[in-house]
Write a structure and sequence with these properties.
The complex is a heterodimer. By secondary structure, chain A is an alpha/beta fold. Helix content of chain A is 37%, strand content 13%. Chain B is built from 15 helices and 17 strands. In chain B, the strands form four sheets. In chain B, strands 1, 2, 6, 7, 8, 11, 12, 13, 14 and 15 form a ten-stranded mixed sheet that branches. In chain B, strands 5-4-16 form a three-stranded antiparallel sheet, with no helix packed on it. The chains are: A alpha/beta, B alpha+beta. The complex binds zinc ion.
């Protein structure tokens, strides 16, 4: 059976269960796709063929011995900032080039336990800072739908690998939209779970209070399968929430009715300057949901307009501390100096790229004495207001619909000279991270140029079942997610 | 003009926890370098801190022992600074909402009872240990992340003696409370000392000089004395004290400038996003209160009231916890409290000094010391034999009764033997006899000494005295 790499997790687990294919066959098909296309796409930084095949063989043996599970033998691509024991973890930065993870992130350990196969490491914006994967220190990843365009970021490698069928699914991380935006740009499904649902232990931190691990998949069901496998309280991450983890894929039935559901439409999210093609696609999607039985209600999220400013204060402040550990003392790059200060300076100057440096300096500035109250403290207060907006809105709607990005994927190099312009791309995704709530991106159309457009479905904390239900109903009654790029 | 010094101490106390503050690595002194380490305490990418509940308990119990209020809502902050011994290049600490607030230490300074007030106690993590060699610097991360509390006093002390008494009292309370071993050699207790001077009568504090990282109380005393004199002299000569950090050179007995306010660190504190705030319930505080051990002051009172010891004895015995614990254990086995006290302060203490080991490192046990006291109290051995017995037990251990028998140390109460020694004494010491008869009763002591010598210390002294008097007065 050829082309196993084009299938979804749920399709493959059925085939595996029925004995119609083996994990080794799946991995071989995926590796063949990587060999055929990744030269053009550039999703992968490193591919661990031997380990992947060994894991696939082990999964096949386990299945033969009676072990079951939706992820048993399914090959995944992992964003290069998640620690997978024995594999490099560079965060696409020169400063920890050569670092090999000495331990598994909790999410990885859970997937390993479930029998998933780890194909290798996929590209990203350096330390997850960026919206296009152009800030990677190692290579450019291209959008499979049009290789002149960016795949989005920072989980650009994850989204591109899934869109190009170079992985069955991938893991990314979302600090201000880094899963949902590349998923939208590449025509994939991207889920940013509620803060505290999935342990961050082993996820190299960008902004601790915003980061969340999540899946990039071909269908909503696949996202639900991965969420189920990774969610749960972790004694190694104090910020994880102690709640029972249901099987999130179970409620995604073939009845695609949205009757009885109220979906909120935030007037502030159809921003000025939005690409008309994006607006049309999203408005059509809203009409579609109405046809499925949902009631659409107008809502207001008035403080979302401050989200970009607040996000760049809090995220950079936390990043300035989180990235301080990359100093050349214990691992990664070292440039020697006459004393520790000179060593740090030289190491960090050589190791970090311009975007990371920009953000460290900004974060250091907003925390420094005399500025803390004016920036950081005020940003925290506005963050609370943004959260309260979502709370209030969620009181009378089950989920919120919005675009993911103001435009489809732009051209490589188009915005790199103007970081501020690029920051504005996160305008529709960052409020979700600041509020700690959940968000889903599903394909909802294409631009005339053939680039995917995403619909964002937001839910209050722990309302994953709601947004997955809406996303699944929409997806299964439309054809967008079945399109494949030709490259 | 007259000047007044204002001194405040920030004392770091390493807690007695089995594991580190934010990970499960062992807290162990003297282990092979970099063996008790993990991704968390090495600051590896992706590693996250997890609270050590025992450290929180010990910090709060320290607070309760010092009369602090336990903060029901405390939180964690990051203190940012680059240094090789900080694996994350920030330290997790508590800035504006510490675990314990207020508190005080009441202690005697040169016979006068004084109260020193505390500002707060906060919990934080320790740094790694740097060793600088000619070939380069070595870092041992075994110490990185161990539990450390900082006890901050108000500028309530006014002399080096005050500071010395404060440190001694604090150390005792931490030891008695089981919070820390307070082993200064192992760096369990270190203080930053803030010193300022102002004209008597002025309310505003003078410019503050901080002397960093001192672990020896006697050096703290020297440094404070030097610093007070330096600041007063500076002001007297028309100069101005600048706020700065100074180090102390113990060889020269001087402080020296390290860093002025202008190049002070900006630590850029902000709330630690990886840890939730700490919520402590009233029930939890009540539970901890009920588990608090006896403090030296309380123990001293008990010795006086319940054991009938003189206040002097009580004070000496409680001055060191291991001595007091030993004494307590012995008193559980005998009612001869005063005798035990005498031996602890006398023979045992001198043996410990002589051999440079502490009593718990010796072969003597509380049980055997209690037995010695009973043997003396019951008249089986004399006091001088007891001292000899203690010396044997201290060095070799063993069963006191068996030693007494083996070495024939039992007191001789046999009248005929005593009678013979008494007669020999009188016959052979004509001068003493004459003196006694001439009206000097004290001269009987030299006759007594003779008998004791002849009997090898085994004669029962009261019986001998009575017998000598009877014969001389006859
Ligand atoms: Zn550790």
């Amino acid at each position: 059976m050829a082309g196993l790499n084009t299938k979804t997790i749920s399709e493959l687990s059925d085939l595996l269960e029925q004995g119609k294919c083996t994990s080794v066959q799946i991995v071989n098909d995926v590796l063949a796709a990587i060999d055929a296309h990744d030269g053009k796409i550039g999703a992968y930084l490193t591919i661990d063929r031997a380990a992947a095949l060994a894991q696939a063989e082990a999964a096949d043996k386990a299945r033969a011995a009676g072990k079951k599970g939706a992820l048993l033998g399914i090959p995944l691509a992992i964003k290069d900032l998640l620690n997978v024991k024995g594999q490099p973890c560079t965060c696409s930065s020169k400063i920890i080039e050569g670092y090999v993870a000495p331990y598994d992130a909790t999410a990885i350990a859970k997937l390993r336990e479930a029998g998933a196969v780890f194909l290798g490491r996929v590209n990203m914006d350096e330390f997850a800072m960026g919206s296009s994967t152009e800030s990677s220190a190692f290579k450019k990843t291209r959008n499979p739908w049009n290789t002149d365009h960016v795949p989005g970021g920072s989980s650009g490698g994850s989204a591109a690998s899934v869109a190009a069928d170079e992985a069955i699914a991938a893991l990314g991380s979302d600090t201000g939209g880094s899963i949902r935006q590349p998923a939208a740009f590449c025509g994939c499904v991207g889920l940013k779970p509620t803060y505290g649902m999935i342990s961050r232990y082993g996820l190299t931190a960008f902004a601790s209070s915003l980061d969340q691990i999540g899946p990039i998949t071909k269908t909503v069901r696949d996202a639900a399968i991965l969420l189920t496998a990774m969610a749960g309280k972790d004694p190694m991450d104090s910020t994880t929430v102690d709640l029972p983890v249901p099987d999130y894929s179970k409620d995604l039935t073939d009845d695609h009715s949205l009757k009885g559901m109220q979906l909120g439409l935030p007037k502030e999210y159809f921003v000025e300057g939005m690409d008309p093609e994006v607006e049309t696609a999203v408005r059509n999607a809203i009409e579609h949901c109405k046809k499925l039985g949902a009631k659409i209600v107008d809502i207001s999220l008035p403080h979302s307009k401050y989200a970009i400013a607040v996000y760049y204060i809090i995220a950079t402040a936390e990043a300035s501390a989180n990235l301080a550990r990359f100093d050349g003392i214990r691992y990664g790059l070292r440039k020697d100096g006459a004393d520790p200060i000179e060593l740090y300076g030289k190491t960090r100057a050589a190791g970090f790229g311009p975007e990371v440096k920009r953000r460290i300096i900004l974060g250091t500035y907003v925390l420094s004495s005399g500025y803390y109250d004016a920036y950081y403290l005020r940003a925290q207060k506005v963050r609370t207001l943004i959260h309260n907006d979502f709370r209030a809105a969620s009181a009378h709607c089950d989920a919120i619909l919005a675009p993911v990005t103001p435009t489809p994927a732009y051209k490589i190099g188009e915005k790199t000279s103007d970081p501020l312009k690029m920051y504005l791309d996160d305008i529709l995704t960052t409020p979700v991270n600041l509020a700690g709530i959940c968000g889903l991106s599903v394909p909802c159309g294409f631009s005339k140029a053939g680039l995917p457009i995403g619909l964002q479905i937001l839910g209050d904390s722990f309302m994953e079942p709601s947004i997955l239900k809406v996303g699944h109903a929409y997806e299964q009654t439309t054809e967008w997610h079945r399109q494949k790029p030709k490259f | 003009m007259k000047y007044e010094a204002c001194i405040g101490l920030e004392t770091h106390v390493m807690q007695k926890t089995r594991t580190k503050m934010f990970c499960g690595c062992k807290h162990e002194y003297g282990a092979e370098p970099n063996t008790n380490v993990c991704p968390v305490c090495l600051g590896y990418p992706g590693a996250l801190p997890v609270l050590n509940a025992r450290a929180i308990e010990l910090c709060c119990k320290a607070g309760l022992l010092l009369g602090c209020e336990i903060n029901p809502h405390s939180k964690w902050d990051r203190k940012n600074y680059f240094y090789p011994d900080m694996s994350k290049n920030y330290q997790i600490t508590q800035a504006d909402r510490p675990l314990c607030l207020g508190g005080k230490i009441v202690t005697e300074v040169n016979g006068e009872l004084k109260t020193f007030t505390l500002e707060r106690i906060h919990q934080e993590e320790n740094a790694a240990k740097n060793t600088h060699a000619a070939s380069g610097s070595l870092i041992d991360y075994n110490r990185a992340g161990t539990a450390l509390m900082e006890i901050v006093s108000t500028p309530c002390m006014h002399s080096a003696d005050d500071a010395f008494a404060y440190i001694q009292a604090l150390k005792l309370i931490m030891e008695y409370g089981g919070i820390s071993d307070c082993d200064l050699e192992k760096g369990h207790m270190r203080s930053d000392v803030n010193v300022s001077v102002r004209p008597v009568g002025q309310e505003k504090l003078g410019a503050k000089v901080e002397i960093k990282n001192m672990n020896s109380p006697s050096f703290i005393v020297e440094a404070i004395k030097y610093e007070i004199a330096r600041q007063i002299e500076l002001i007297e000569n028309g100069g101005k004290v600048v706020q700065e950090t100074r180090g102390y050179d113990s060889d020269r007995g001087e402080t020296f400038s390290q860093r002025t306010k202008e190049d002070a660190h900006d630590y850029r504190y902000f709330p630690e996003p990886d840890l939730l705030p700490v919520e402590i319930s009233a029930a939890q505080i009540a539970q901890w209160k009920s588990e608090l051990p006896e403090l030296p002051v309380q123990r001293r009172e008990r010795y006086v009231k319940e054991l009938g010891l003189p206040d002097y004895d009580a004070k000496v015995l409680t001055a060191e916890k291991h001595i007091s614990d030993f004494f307590d254990a012995a008193c559980h086995k005998t009612k001869q409290y005063k005798l035990v006290s005498n031996y602890m302060m006398g023979k045992v203490a001198s043996l410990a000094t002589e051999k440079s080991i502490s009593v718990d490192e010796s072969q003597l046990t509380p049980e055997t010391l209690a037995q010695v006291a009973d043997l003396v109290g019951g008249g089986t051995i004399s006091s001088s034999a007891a001292n000899e017995l203690i010396e044997i037990l201290f060095a070799e251990g063993g069963d006191p009764k068996a030693v007494v028998e083996a070495k024939c140390m039992a007191q001789v109460n046999d009248d005929s033997a005593l009678e013979k020694w008494a007669e020999e004494a009188i016959a052979g010491n004509a001068k003493a006899v004459a003196d006694y008869k001439a009206g000097n009763p004290a001269s009987i002591n030299s006759l007594m000494g003779y008998v004791m010598k002849q009997s090898k210390g085994k004669a029962n002294p009261p019986t001998v005295i009575a017998m000598l008097k009877k014969k001389l007065d006859a």
